[in-house]
Amino acid sequence: MFSFKITHQDKNSKARCARLSTPHGEVETPVFMPVATQAAVKTISPRELEECSAQIILSNAYHLYLRPGLEVIEDLGGLHNFMSWQKPILTDSGGYQVFSLAFLRKYKDEGVEFQSHIDGSKHFLTPEKVIQIQKTLGSDIIMPLDDCIEYPATHEMAKIALERTTRWAKLAKDEYKKLNLSQTQALFGIVQGSTYEDLRKQSAKELTDLDFFGYAVGGLSVGEPQDLMYEMFSVAMDSLPQQKPRYVMGVGMPEDIFEAIGSGVDMFDCVIPTRYGRNGSAFTSEGKLTVRNAEFKSDDKLLDPNCDCYTCKNFSRAYLRHLFNSSEMLGLRLVSLHNIYFFIKLTQDIRESIKEDRFSEFKDSFLNRFSQLSKV
Amino acid sequence: MFSFKITHQDKNSKARCARLSTPHGEVETPVFMPVATQAAVKTISPRELEECSAQIILSNAYHLYLRPGLEVIEDLGGLHNFMSWQKPILTDSGGYQVFSLAFLRKYKDEGVEFQSHIDGSKHFLTPEKVIQIQKTLGSDIIMPLDDCIEYPATHEMAKIALERTTRWAKLAKDEYKKLNLSQTQALFGIVQGSTYEDLRKQSAKELTDLDFFGYAVGGLSVGEPQDLMYEMFSVAMDSLPQQKPRYVMGVGMPEDIFEAIGSGVDMFDCVIPTRYGRNGSAFTSEGKLTVRNAEFKSDDKLLDPNCDCYTCKNFSRAYLRHLFNSSEMLGLRLVSLHNIYFFIKLTQDIRESIKEDRFSEFKDSFLNRFSQLSKV
After folding, report:
1. Is pLDDT at A199 greater than 60 in this prediction?
2. Contact yes or no for B83/B36 (Cβ under 8 A)
3. Domains observed in chain A
4. Do the Cβ atoms of A287 and A306 come closer than 8 Å?
5. B317-325 vs B329-355: helix crossing angle, rounded to 10
6. What phi and psi, each to the nearest 5 degrees, are found at residue B94?
7. Could you give the residue numbers annotated as active site of B?
């Protein structure tokens, strides 16, 4: 059921196009995955996601395990049916959420103990249990439990965390084999190693030896300088198998996306479109635009005149500004919808540019135009 | 441009069907008007309203005058363009909002002085100014400034308020004529008189003598007992011209709607579908259902299996409960959308029943079924 086939390698960069096949359909990469942490892309309906040409979305094992709980999702026939989304879903393991949200964490060799950020209830997640959880969810692509650490971290701390991540990845893979999931779900490995080149290489090598269907790069976009993040993209991509899908987690702004793709990344996810949308920041071809700004008070221009989304086909900046000023939720919806459309359209355009061996030119022209509003 | 033609009179009740023509299209009555107080039906897009077969929506002169302000709406080409809704719009004058929201109100013969509920700024609204405001908005049906009072009110207070409402209605009509609006906007009169039969009759007679295109009944659904409200529906309808459109403001629950239509009411508006929707109360054919209830934890049934709306075609009660429990705005949207669809479909079904002279039978069977959930 699963395959990954590179369809075009850009002649002038490491960017490539590929086709990822899953039991719920095919995904053309590079691909941006909207984030549905709690089984909903914030404010957006599944129908709207389809209209934005979303190919695959991301959800989260930690969140769904805590609420509504696995029993509910099992009763409802799995995550796809639960949220009425029949295209591919990737679920993150929850390693990052245990690190960033849960209370009273205790990391042990066998797993991590914590208290729920929702109700303080105690839980113990092991690499095996995290695979079992994602089996119940029925997501197409699943992630092993990883040990996430803060930035900055010492080399020693980062090494301990990456080596634990490798041990857990092996236990996850064993459980995945034992449960015989290879026809229904694909398991990725997660590269850790903070901002240390040697550790990123060590992590990539150890995971490659374990042979996963694909590889994710975790522990980035957590506060490190942009140039270090970009260096880690490059180190990780050069250390991972070329013929496998590669995914950078939690990235990012348009320029980060270009940088990742230019390093050979195929997949990425980020909450930026919906988080910025709820704050009234719209991504346009000329840069980020804050719809509350007084300058848009009587601006009858469409949000982004170059965009074909529902919002941009129907509503002026003045109206969107009014909705935000009046605390009307429709405003959050309309700007979130536009931002998701914008990020997906950006990756569509990038795919076209790669197929025509003009990725670098497209990157330069896009980013040059995208910086216009910030220059004003 | 404006006409009102009764197309069928029910043989066994005062219910009737009619066709109301406006410059932005025709409206089949009896009609439910979703409420877009601040130029947006809360959480719902204009496209979704059209898919719910909404024929006409209600907005509010007081709110739009204060925010975004008339200059903005004028710059954007009027309210229809501003909110991207090209079907008919009715605007309320703001008399009720001055009474219920504004600070430091002082009623004078010439109008009402108040401070904005948003920023405390001082304003003085006169009957003439309220017509000018609605001219700028460009709504199809406009209302004169009225003097709303609380319930309970003494007979003396109610008489003073209704007589002021009549004087203001005359000034409104004079301004309406002076501005030559009859081809673009239709002006209604608003019947007041609290719960006093003699005052309701006096108000209806005085307004009828002034000859408006249609008539609204205000000052109901403000806390009075249901039987008094129903009595006032009946008194007002029997005192107003039969050949004119009649509108009861701010009503109501399904049984109130049946009662109003059975008294001869053609139009009504209410925030109930969206307000209840945001609280997770869904109207279904069997009654009101609270989606947060524990009983729906693993309920894979659609919200209302007898409904054809987007929500009911796609989402289980368990999923909607999860969205509310997780504070996901998508839940508010989906239940609000369903409720609007439900109220509009109810009035469609009522129109069909009137055309077939079986309004009373339909009322009985609908309300009997609608009481099932509350009996459990």
Report:
1. yes
2. yes
3. 3-270 (3.20.20.105), 280-375 (no CATH)
4. no
5. 130
6. 105, -5
7. 92, 269
- Show the tokens assigned to A304: 């982004």
Match 């509910």 to its residue by tokens.
A72
DSSP secondary structure string for all residues of B253-319: SHHHHHHHHHTT--EEE-SHHHHHHHTTEEEETTEEEETT-GGGTT--SBSSTT--SHHHHH-BHHH
Between the CA atoms of A361, A364, A365 and A368, what dihedral angle is there, to the nearest 10 degrees? -170
∠ CA(B71), CA(B72), CA(B75), 5° rounding?
85
| Contact criterion met (CB < 8 Å) for A67 and B332 | no
Query: Cβ contact (<8 Å) for A316 and B39?
Result: no
Do B255 and B268 form a contact (C-beta atoms < 8 A)? Answer: no
Angle, helix B329-355 to helix A329-355, in steps of 10 degrees: 110
- Nearest CB partner across the interface for A71, out of B40, B77, B298: B298
pLDDT reported for residue B373: 83
User: Tens digit of pLDDT for each residue in B86-145?
Assistant: 999 999 999 999 989 988 899 999 999 999 999 999 999 999 999 999 999 999 999 999
Backbone φ/ψ region at A270: left (φ over 0), alpha (ψ -120 to 50), beta: beta
Contact A326 B38 (CB under 8 A): yes
* Mean pLDDT calculated for residue range A185-207: 98
The mean pLDDT value of chain B amounts to 97
The number of helices, as runs of H, and strands, as runs of E, in chain B is 16, 16
> Which contacts of B173-180 are long-range, i.e. CB under 8 A and separated by 24 or more positions?
B173/B144, B173/B210, B173/B212, B174/B128, B175/B127, B175/B128, B175/B131, B175/B132, B176/B131, B176/B142, B179/B131, B179/B132, B179/B135
Contacts of A82 in chain B (CB under 8 A): 316, 318-319, 322
> Shortest Cα distance from A333 to chain B (angstroms)?
8
Q: Give me the mean pLDDT over the B181-191 stretch.
A: 98
Contact A333, B43 (CB under 8 A): yes
CA distance A38 to A253: 22
pTM for the full predicted model: 0.97
Instruction: Grade residue A42 by pLDDT with cuts at 50, 70 and 90.
Output: very high
Neighbours of B248 (CB within 10 A): 30
pLDDT tens, residue by residue, A230-278: 999 999 999 999 999 999 999 999 999 999 999 999 999 999 999 999 9
Would you state the pLDDT for residue A373? 83
| Amino acid (one-letter) located at B32 | F
